[in-house]
Amino acid sequence: MNRISKFQFTALLLITDLFSLCCCFGGISLGTLWGILAGTAVQYLAAMCFAVQGGALKKWAQVFFLVYAVFSGGALFVSLWRTRSAVYIPYEASHGIWGSLMTAGLIALVCLYASSTGIKSVTRAAVIAAVMALLSLSVDLVSALFNAEWSNVSLPEKRGLLGEILRGFGLSGSLGSMAVWLDSVKGDKSKALTAYFAAKAAAVTAVIVTVLPVVGGIMELTEFPVITAAQLSQPFEAQRIDSLFLVVFSVLAIFSVTLQVMTGAYLFGELLPRFQRWRSFTVIALVIGAAFIINGRELLTVRACAAAAALLIAPVGAKKSAAIGSG
Amino acid sequence: MEKGGLLPVLDSSIQKIRSVSGGSSDVLINRFVTGGIHCALLCCEGMVSASVITELIFEPITDIPQQKDSHGLFHYINEELLLSTDRPEVGDYDTLFQLMNSGFAVLLAEGMTTGLAFGVQGYNTRGVQEPLGEGNIMGAHEGFTETVRTNMSQIRRRIKSPELVMELSKKGDKSSTDICLCYMKDRVPKALMERIRRSLDRVELEAVLTTGYLRPFVENGSFELFDSTGTTERPDVLCSKLIEGRVALLVDGVPYAIVIPRLFCESFQTLDDYAYKPYYATFIRWLKYGAFLIAVLLPSFYVAIVMYHPELLNSTLFMLLVDSEKKAPLSIVTEAFFVLIMYEVIREAGVRLPKPVGGAVSIISGLIIGDAAVNSGLVSTPLLTMTALSVLGGLVVPELNPQVTVLRFAFLISGGALGLFGISLLACAVLVNICATEDYGFPYMAPLSPFRKSGMGDTAVRSGIKKLQSRGFTVEEYHE
């Protein structure tokens, strides 16, 4: 397996989380932030257990993570389709279902190409994409602060903390990939996990703390608060920049789906070593198939349960590393 | 050609040479007797210097005293006469022809199965001139020439270290082109040299006429938009690369050297950067990064914004564009495509035509066609301005011109079809492709991704020379 650095690992996983956050459906409040942060802390603890356990995954665990990658990929496509009313994609907007299919097809094509180049090149590209996305998002969100109404931060909370933790888990589609690719990280795995979860917590906090004062007043009316916040952030008086959010959104979507496709293709290769040539293609076909099955539903509870299962299965399904085995 | 020693009978040997060469007119065979032995001096017309061969070979050789046999003659020449510094021995006809066609004079003697060759090359070559493609203000004005040995001497003149190794070999079954592998043996890892040698061993071409024949052999085989090996026509640039632990390949007959490996950031570095103050060099470097992005993306962004995302423009600019575009008879994408194609045609014509005519083509295209196109309303002025800016941006980074040209068209099509979404999709694919480009374990995007903080001093900015000096950089730092 190719070796990747902890920054590359962090960037790749963070992109998926940022995309899920951008597509986050329904109103959010300060409780959402606490919920997601609490969820992240729980995930971090569970992931550290896996890091200590170390080693590659057993066959049955690989089967689980393959299914999880296909499901997560499908959920990402569904999120993409759901947000089309908020994010303007030229061809899609005027061609209904065929437009959606074409959007999915084009993204699938790029993902197929990206995953065919291997984990090393995708992680290298992901670092650049993540930096660009974070820069653009911060420009978007910092300009949003000028339109902020800080009293909106203390909005009434609709869900309890448990509900928000569940939501946080549901928005963490990269946990399966984390378990699969952790073994290929160079150096101290626990440091890589710390870097990832710290970056995730920081990014989520920055986004939600900016979204709340901007969208707060119309939170009841908005479907996708993060996208709305980006649309409301206009640094210039005479022109709008919300189309630029589309660029960030597309880049995040592509790398998120690519991660799931690559994870699935890698696991396919591990499970069926003779099946080499059409692995990525098969996974992407399965992902689009899963998206059609899920279509229209958020399935937040199912996603949260799957993420929790991934965290539990990862340490249990790991082969004992040489160091532990001998020790 | 059959292997085996030279025929001992001089007449038979000469007959054989005539038959192998097909009686070629440029094969000159001069028969004479010296020291009482029948000899023949063979050379290729135009490849040797007439004055050198007369002064250094004929005059001393014809003064040789009587010898008892041919062995004695060769022994006398080898021990008593210093006819030339380069004196290989010829054991077979294959070598004989190779040497003769490289400007050596070969001496054959009756009864000998070997010959003596003398390096008396004297063919006409272009002198050292200023490189045409890599402009430089503050640096040296010498470029490589078509003669590999002259190029080797230009490098040696700049790096006098004994660590600089130059390995000559021949490639091409028919052309027998001299190839010179240059490297600093204390800087280049042995494993890398072995891998490059193995790559070159795979060359089974009949002729090596340009660097492009060899580059595919030393590059990664997968589909890469950008070249993981570079070329330079400047000896000073090549020397800086060699000192950084890179390997160079010189090809006889080509005034360019191949540099292995090449990084993306190097396309934005010139030797002039190190002659200016760091703040100005940094400014110029960022100007080049910006120019590259403008060259690739400006027409596509213009088309995407005007067609799908006009809200990104302020009202004054928007009205200005609407006003000029509504007069144009073609769609914006077609218009942009047409202008870019026209530019490429004009550029290609300018490059291929003789220089005086090339200048006329530029005037006709720039002044007459451009002006007429705008006045007739075929092309809108803002679009023409954007295209011109994009083309100018591409000229700032000439090394990436092929990639810039193709990507500009690709982005234009994707932007025209799907707006910023299409541009983003293609940008992701291109980004992954660039990041996948790797040669012998050196990632093309280093030190950006994989990130190397130490490399930023000569990538994001241009640090002071004192700071760079203390760094002691070799490209090995980027190896993965």
TrEMBL record, chain A:
Q: Which domain of life is it from?
A: Bacteria
What keywords would UniProt list here? Membrane, Transmembrane, Transmembrane helix
Q: Which organism is it from?
A: Ruminococcus flavefaciens
List the lineage, top down.
Bacteria, Bacillati, Bacillota, Clostridia, Eubacteriales
Whether Transmembrane helix counts among this entry's keywords is yes
Name recorded for this polypeptide: Membrane protein YkvI
Spans through the membrane: 30-51, 63-81, 93-114, 126-145, 165-182, 194-215, 244-266, 278-294, 300-318
From TrEMBL, chain B:
| Entry-linked InterPro entries | Spore_Ger, UPF0353/GerABKA_families
Under Pfam families, the record lists:
GerA
Q: Mind listing the UniProt keywords for this protein, alphabetically?
A: Membrane, Transmembrane, Transmembrane helix
Name recorded for this polypeptide: Spore germination protein KA
Example GO CC term: the record gives: membrane
Family as reported in the entry's similarity comment = Belongs to the GerABKA family.
Give TM segment ranges.
286-308, 328-345, 357-374, 409-432
The species is Ruminococcus flavefaciens
Biological process terms from the Gene Ontology for this record are: spore germination
